[in-house]
């Protein structure tokens, strides 16, 4: 598991920088359109970016220094048979789960305090989602594919949340 974790970090960094970041955003928006949820984040006009700036924005928005440090420091948990891997997945999953709703939070225009309250209210669900996603992403070769399927799952979840909020009470 330790070697898989290390290879996952390298593969995800490269794939998110050049492919997955933009694909995830497009998938998220496509699921919203398909589900009939009218909530699309639009970047402010007049902001043109070079390729390097686009890559940096895609990576920095999904891979924080704190997150990478937490991931690397917690990798040795995998050395503890069975229990260590579960703890590793839960610990990192609790932080990774909400990142799959970044696009949703942007579309809703949530401020950091509001976003944190929203996540805290659903902490168990976000931890379970993040742990499952991280576990699937550790599968060699197809891990990036699971990132895309997890993005679709997160978008469907966000659509369900949005539809429940719009229901008359």
Automatic annotation (TrEMBL):
Q: Does the keyword Isomerase apply?
A: no
UniProt subcellular location: Membrane
- Protein name stated in the entry: Uncharacterized protein
InterPro entries in the record:
CysZ/EI24, Spore_wall_assembly
Keywords, ordered alphabetically: Membrane, Transmembrane, Transmembrane helix
Among PANTHER family, the record links this protein to:
OUTER SPORE WALL PROTEIN LDS1
> What kind of membrane protein is this, topologically?
Multi-pass membrane protein
Q: Which domain of life is it from?
A: Eukaryota
Q: What is the lineage of its organism?
A: Eukaryota, Fungi, Dikarya, Basidiomycota, Agaricomycotina
Indicate the transmembrane segments per the record: 71-91
Record carries keyword Cytoplasm: no
